[in-house]
Amino acid sequence: MLLMKFDVVIIGGGLVGAGLALALRNGGLGVALVEARTPAPLPPDDAWDSRIYAVSPGSAAFLQDVGIWPALAANRLTPVHEMAIFGDDDAACLDFSAYDAGLPELAWIVENGRLQAAAWRMLKRRTRPVRTFCPAECASIAWDESRAELRLADGSVLQAALIVGADGIHSWVREQAGIDTEQRAYGQMGVVANFSAQNSHRHVARQWFRRDGVLALLPLPESRVSMVWSTDEAHARTLLAVPGAELCDRVMQASGHALGALQLVTQPAAFPLRFVHAKKLVQSRIALVGDAAHGIHPLAGQGVNLGLRDARELAVTLLGRGPELDCGDPLLLGRYERARKEDILATELATDGLHRLFGSPHPTLMRWRNLGLEITNRLPLLKNQLMRHALN
Ligand SMILES: Cc1cc2nc3c(=O)[nH]c(=O)nc-3n(C[C@H](O)[C@H](O)[C@H](O)COP(=O)(O)OP(=O)(O)OC[C@H]3O[C@@H](n4cnc5c(N)ncnc54)[C@H](O)[C@@H]3O)c2cc1C
Question: Does pTM surpass 0.85?
Fold first, then answer.
């Protein structure tokens, strides 16, 4: 049996797990990262990824600190200067502007594949690499008061003061730790595809709350836009099945021809949407971050931002622990959980609430939700508060 010792073992090398590993490694801790799938190499320049992230300024600052942001090609980072949100009565609109807020941008739109490739390049770099086990299959976790042990399928054992579950919405770590969840399928899928648009997007992120779901068209370099259409499963399957020209027509109509004619750049793909709330973020020598702790509806584009805020908080907690505590000390884990509770709950309530509000066919609710958008648009203080939360 090969036994290796670390301060922290992170399971899951998505953006949240990789970001946390880099933050801890930069702080001098012994870190191992275990990932099931071999990471894809950096896509060629002419390849476009349908799956994108809307990265908040706060997340961009964290990714900058851990070295992932500087490893991205500047010409694939698209700033969002304005957001325009439309109701389903063809009149209600809520808009946010970076200029009004005195900020350079409200968010950045970045392709998932490029972010992942940059993260893995940083993990593997020659100076102070993170010890990665990839592709690796986890077999079991055991823990007692003083340490946790991860056994891999090849027989090696990774011992640490703390094991972090960053292994996504179907988290194996969460299951091993017996952490209860509240879960429900939204009965929707997120259909994603990129288009090239006739009219300039002018760096505006546009979103339509429609009776058949939420359609977002987010700016990419030049005249391209990335679509996330969260819609019921039958409609999602239709969108995947229709010929490209018909998909373009449907998106043009649903978006009120805001960007003129559209041409498909990438084949559409779809992801099932699920609400998951882990009832605890920590357990003896175990902590959860990212989708392993909370899966939310993508209508506010906040999923990965919420996860990166977990990673940032856990890193700050562990690196500031003082010499008398090890990384899995219950005091530290309790501190991390308390610090993250409010943000997670507020974001879950907001995204879930909006989904329910705009998913309802009730005529009174329909009138009120559009009125709500209009009223919010006229209340600068409320608008400012909403925006501040999204910028974190
Ligand atoms: C259609 C759609 C659009 C979205 N758009 C946005 C957006 O615009 N902005 C935004 O912020 N969020 C968005 N999200 C949400 C976002 O994708 C997730 O919140 C984010 O990917 C979570 O990151 P993560 O690192 O926690 O998990 P993941 O990205 O799921 O990564 C988990 C990693 O763990 C690995 N893993 C799993 N199990 C194991 C195991 N047993 N052992 C080892 N490794 C394992 C996986 O291979 C994977 O690499 C969207 C989601 C959907 C579905």
Answer: yes
